[in-house]
Amino acid sequence: MNKTLVLGVIGADVHSVGNKILEYALNLEGFNVVNLGVMVSQQEFIDAAVETAADAILVSSLYGHGELDCKGLREKCEEAGIGNILMYAGGNLVVGKTPFEEVEKRFLDMGFDRVFPPGTLPQTGIDFLRKDLGLANISDGGGSL
Amino acid sequence: MNKTLVLGVIGADVHSVGNKILEYALNLEGFNVVNLGVMVSQQEFIDAAVETAADAILVSSLYGHGELDCKGLREKCEEAGIGNILMYAGGNLVVGKTPFEEVEKRFLDMGFDRVFPPGTLPQTGIDFLRKDLGLANISDGGGSL
Amino acid sequence: METTDKKIPMDQFLETRKEVLAQWPTGAEVDFREAVEYHHGIPVNKRFPECLRKADENGSTLLQPRAGVALVNEHIELLRYLEEHGQADLLPTTIDSYTRHNRYGEAQTGIEESRRENRSLLNGFPAVNHGVAACRKVSESVGIPVQVRHGTPDARLLAEITIAGGFTSFEGGGISYNIPYAKNNPLEKTIRDWQYADRLAGYYAENGVVINREPFGPLTGTLIPPCISHAVAIIESLLAAKQGAGDITVGYGQGGNLTQDVSAMYTLKELTREYLDRFGFNDVRVSTVLHQWMGGFPEDESKAYGVISWGAAAAALSKATKVIVKSPHESQGIPTKEANAAGLRTTRQVIDMLREQRMPMTDEVRTEMEIIGRETRSIIEAILKIGEGDIAAGAIRGFEAGLIDVPFAPSRYNRGKVLPVRDDDGAIRFLDFGQLPFGDDIKAFHNDMVAIRGRNERRKPNFQMVIDDIYAISKGRLVGRPR
Amino acid sequence: METTDKKIPMDQFLETRKEVLAQWPTGAEVDFREAVEYHHGIPVNKRFPECLRKADENGSTLLQPRAGVALVNEHIELLRYLEEHGQADLLPTTIDSYTRHNRYGEAQTGIEESRRENRSLLNGFPAVNHGVAACRKVSESVGIPVQVRHGTPDARLLAEITIAGGFTSFEGGGISYNIPYAKNNPLEKTIRDWQYADRLAGYYAENGVVINREPFGPLTGTLIPPCISHAVAIIESLLAAKQGAGDITVGYGQGGNLTQDVSAMYTLKELTREYLDRFGFNDVRVSTVLHQWMGGFPEDESKAYGVISWGAAAAALSKATKVIVKSPHESQGIPTKEANAAGLRTTRQVIDMLREQRMPMTDEVRTEMEIIGRETRSIIEAILKIGEGDIAAGAIRGFEAGLIDVPFAPSRYNRGKVLPVRDDDGAIRFLDFGQLPFGDDIKAFHNDMVAIRGRNERRKPNFQMVIDDIYAISKGRLVGRPR
Ligand code: B12
Ligand code: B12
Questions:
Q1: Contact list, A68 vs chain D (CB under 8 Å)
Q2: What is the residue range of D20's domain?
Q3: CATH at C157
Q4: C306: which of C271, C285, D350, D410 fits an S-S bond (Cβ 3.0–4.6 Å)?
Q5: pLDDT digits over C72-109, tens only?
């Protein structure tokens, strides 16, 4: 029942602090975490997801180039035969303070399943992962902890 | 050529700091200043103006009740036979941060000749007084200093 | 009848009470027994004295805004907003200026015009006109304690109505709500009227209901040397304690120089305690409040945030029991609820970030504390002397003689001879001592400090320098250097 | 070839130079002789070194924002706005992340998409793509000095183009722009590449044009103990001085505990001076910069103003030569020009209000300074030892051995074993020392301080405590107390 997640910070982005915390929190929660760290290319995300038969890809982007960096990722997944993989994005996804609804729309349109605003705590992502991956909720008495 | 000004803070307003500074600055400038201080009623302004044959009335209101307090002052001046006296108002004239254009309009409509926004320095008032009272400008080499 | 520091006898108090309650129709709503019962039902976390004590025990600083509008529902909405979105710990009900001057008729007009225009035309909440039931509605609508904040020379009816209305703290005093807030009110009368308010607090206390009392610290809010406001705080604390008030918060308006502000806050508590104990009021509880900068604010809101933050820092580093918070609209007008909450949140961030820190006892702080102590004691001792041991009579004669003198105050019962000015480090000193009863050593200290500044600025310290200091913070500086 | 601390011989430098200028077409625009001439024509008040020296002489703290957008005219408009409406003293040109990673092709795409969409899609100004003439247009459009701020491991071409482009200061260093800003770049290479940038500054200096150089102080901006960033600052200063750089600004990112921050700023200058002198660089000028809190910011803008103000206060009270300013948008994204200017004005108000004040030399400051001094010297001496006297070789080997180790850094050339945590007063201490070369006394001090906090919070200090500290300021506290 151990779900595998590929985690990383996309593009030329080096913001490593949130990534380390996410890894720690997801591990605690019992997920099998493949953390690619920072400065991860689209190809690296896909290769890791294929290789580990991952259940989800979690993309972080903090530095503002998220839009440029994420374009085409869903299409590449499709080409690689994992077109249906669950795909999340979070962080400071665009340049500049922007109403989150706009940002969410842009990223949903790009093929992400869920999008998270700046300042999202790991627990929020975890709760959605459990739901989307069909895992019992911790508060339901289940869970893998 | 000494012009006489009646100065005061209207209504139940006790903000005395600006009043003391205005008095000092107007005196320095050579005006004949009749300072009624704080908590001055409409009647007191008018009595003083009539008594001293003043050239202008300078009303301050800081505490927010300026609108309520100033209503009818021009009409009372007319009744007292000084309907044409120059009348200025300044301070924080209304309750709450309000676009100055609105405030200015309300007070001009009430019969004030000039209206000054929060934070006005005495020199600004003085420059307009010189103009409106037909005095030479200091920078023109004239003035009573 | 001379005003003296005697506890008002019960019969006399009850006699006056009838007159007071008859001043305006809503006075009839006050029923003391019922009000005491009502207070017994107020939960502990909604009582001022308890919250202040807890804060002191935890070493935390509580946040309180200023706020009040003309109409009841709008006022409740405002307070709720500040509780929820401002994360306030304590709430105010700021009273409008007509009520402060007992002009209840004009307040009524203000209420009606506000209803008509659908915006508050009053600069506060006219509690007397609204009456006891409305006050209870206000205090019941929020989850934290509410205090009456005003500036009323004769606040007897206001006290009756608001305390019966469930408020658990009442600001003011016979000096601090006269000298900066009035022009023609003799101290004899305002001190006597405030003895009534204190006696009322004492009456409640005798019936098991402790009401917090807070002398207004900042006075005119403009370059007040600590010893002046400390002296007023001590006198009013002694007067209140004599009438039976059991819980007192003494206040101070931030000056801007951190060493002086911290020293002022430390000495404020120490000296008040010292005098209360000396006169046998050992069981009166003392807490402190720091007011963020009370003088003119910068117009620009982002600059105002800087001033607000520096006030928050001074409160946190001096471990004030509470801090009174300004808003980014300060220079412009009564703040919207959003601006008020924004000032609170800025303050919250700074206070909470600094809660583990305090200003250490440096040599500079020690020196400053010693000076403030000596100055304050000089004033209080001179007042006790001229009052022949009676602090009320002494205060009245002292103001007349200029032994105590509040800079820039509008009252004719204040000498108005003292002139403060900043020294070269921004601490507030005396340029002119008027008749303050200071020894030569203290005077020499101030003269030296001011002279240093004069030398550095190559100008003679005079009224222009004082004016520059008055404008300084609103123009972005602490010290008004020559332009 | 091992990277060592040798001045690059001129012929070798000129050889490499050809390669560097060939990396992107705009390299051809650089003409050294002409650039030197150009710099001689830059007015004194637009030169970084002069402005910093003057500020130190006056005891004032200069304000500098971060700012950069994709297109030239928009970037100029932005800088002008910050000069005029933000009252900045010094301007930046923050470079976008593609350029930082020498991905000039992607930067070009970003420029084009930004043109098309009429908004900046890049997080900075792609100076290399825009070229020398565009940079000159930028620096000529404003009335104050401009610095290049980036985070570029290999900044050789960027340095060539921007310095020829009239910028008078260049931020970065072979460690500080690698370890926090890169993943796969060996220190051998980045230190060597930065020796080139320093040599370029030296080359200009030999021709009478002093370019300010500034190692990036805050590193990962997240709970960096002062000794770590001090050690990096000293190493990079020595490396820069060896290549002939004559004017250095060392930096530190605010931690939040005032005593520690002031002690850090005082020791930063002292220790840098000490080592520069020891290696004979007595005539290299040293100034300091404090960065307002570099970690995660609160989302709420009014809370962000509180954080900004506290950073401004730390800079003023520690008499930093300059302060790098954050904006109320920090937690959200690159600020609009209005938000950026607002952060500057808040800072301006606080800095100017506090200009007369400084943190006095308390026992607490003295103790903290001594500890920072001992820790920093331990690290530098261990590095010199492992480098057999060579600071470049020592730094490379030292990072490998974990003698120096930057918390939370993304680089694989950083050990990543050190864990910082706040003590009970909010000062940043070590939870895990990794391989840091500290004596038992220093370790005992940190362990004790951390243990006190653990006891007060009734929990074992561990990674959860570190995480709580990382979130703390964004959640409104300095110390991440258990929820
Ligand atoms: C100090 C102060 C006080 C002191 C006053 C002490 C005293 N006796 O003077 C104390 C603490 C007692 C006080 C009390 C109150 N205050 Co008050 N106070 C201020 C404050 C902070 C500074 C005022 C000041 O001294 N400025 C410095 C002087 C030099 O400037 P000035 O007064 O603006 O005057 C200058 C100019 O305006 C101009 N000027 C003024 N009049 C005129 C007229 C003409 C013709 C011209 C040309 C120029 C001119 O020239 C003057 C000299 O430069 C202001 C806010 C601010 N400005 O930052 C609030 C402020 C004026 N107070 C305010 C209020 C509401 C009150 C209270 C009702 C309490 C409350 N609700 O908080 C009471 C009212 C008491 C009363 N009955 O009047 C509000 C008014 C709100 C509004 N208009 O919407 C303000 C704006 C604060 C706020 N934002 O809420 N206050
Ligand atoms: C620390 C920091 C740095 C450090 C980073 C050190 C390091 N190696 O990690 C340094 C100083 C080196 C740095 C550099 C830069 N930074 Co930076 N940085 C920050 C800062 C202040 C904090 C980031 C942080 O660590 N937060 C704490 C962690 C715990 O939170 P987090 O990163 O947000 O991650 C959490 C959540 O977002 C969420 N999350 C993240 N991803 C995902 C994904 C999913 C699926 C889910 C569910 C949740 C999730 O969970 C994480 C854990 O809680 C932010 C602003 C802020 N937030 O206050 C700017 C910020 C991210 N940086 C920014 C920029 C622009 C840069 C630079 C380009 C420099 C510049 N122009 O100023 C460079 C870029 C370098 C590069 N190539 O990437 C901008 C981005 C702007 C934008 N998006 O519009 C920000 C927002 C600041 C700003 N307002 O300008 N930065």
A1: 106, 109-110, 113, 121
A2: 10-354
A3: 3.20.20.240
A4: D350
A5: 999 999 999 999 999 999 999 999 999 999 999 999 99
